[in-house]
């Protein structure tokens, strides 16, 4: 059956999709769509292992500000954007080159299922593990990850039953927030996550509300 998806997110429809439509025009026709998919996933892995090298136990940002070099956060923003872009244009490129296939869809969404976890695990290094003063507890990290994965599974279960993938608004919003968070961290340092920013609440508290919403 032909792939069918519905995306009603204003951020995607009015801002991101026009950007992807311009980017797709510079991709050579001879490049396989699955190569775009794979390259995007590799970018996510590179980012994850790089951050893991500097922060293997999620404490670097909380206990030793500055331990993770600034360029790592900026590179994380770059890799996240590249992965986001490649994941957004691979399907467009497949339709453009008339090479869409069930295998391509499986490959795309199969790697997405892994990426969903890796994006979240990478981000935890920004806010750090709870050190008694700031940070996020391991239990809370687990809840965050569970919510994201549950959302992913529900979307694809819905697609299995209806034949249409209703893209969650959270996807585009989360990618933009991730990129902005990495840029913010690179610009002002990890300290921004360790100080209350409004009425005694931390930025991570706002992200929780956004995530649940």
Account of the protein in words:
By secondary structure, this protein is mainly alpha-helical. It has a single domain (5-212), classed as CDP-alcohol phosphotransferase transmembrane (TM) domain (Four Helix Bundle (Hemerythrin (Met), subunit A), Up-down Bundle). The protein contains eight helices and two strands; from the N terminus they run E-H-H-H-H-H-H-E-H-H. The chain has helices spanning 10-23, 33-54, 60-63, 70-96, 102-127, 138-162, 169-188, 203-212, and strands at 5-6, 165-166. A two-stranded parallel ribbon has the order 1-2. Helix 1 crosses helix 4 and helix 2 runs antiparallel to helix 4 (70-96). The longest helix is centred in the middle third of the chain and has 27 residues, at 70-96. The radius of gyration is 18 Å and the shape is globular. The relative contact order is 0.15. The mean pLDDT is 88.
């Amino acid at each position: 059956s032909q792939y069918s998806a519905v995306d009603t997110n204003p951020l995607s429809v009015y801002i991101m999709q026009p950007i992807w439509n311009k980017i797709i025009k510079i991709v050579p026709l001879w490049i396989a769509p699955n190569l775009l998919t794979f390259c995007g996933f590799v970018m996510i892995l590179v980012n994850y292992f790089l951050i893991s090298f500097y922060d293997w136990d999620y404490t670097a940002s909380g206990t030793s500000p500055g331990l993770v070099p600034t360029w790592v956060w900026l590179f994380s923003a770059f890799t996240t954007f590249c992965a986001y872009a490649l994941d957004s244009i691979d399907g467009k490129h497949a339709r453009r080159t008339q090479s869409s296939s069930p295998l391509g869809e499986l490959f795309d969404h199969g790697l997405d299922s892994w990426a969903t976890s890796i994006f979240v695990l990478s981000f935890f290094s920004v806010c750090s593990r709870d050190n008694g003063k700031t940070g996020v507890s391991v239990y809370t990290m687990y809840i965050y990850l569970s919510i994201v994965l549950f959302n992913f599974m529900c979307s694809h279960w819905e697609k299995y039953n209806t034949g249409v993938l209703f893209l969650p608004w959270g996807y585009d919003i989360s990618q933009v927030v991730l990129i902005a968070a990495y840029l913010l961290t690179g610009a002002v340092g990890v300290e921004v996550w360790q100080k209350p920013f409004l009425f005694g609440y931390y930025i991570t508290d706002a992200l929780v509300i956004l995530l649940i919403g």
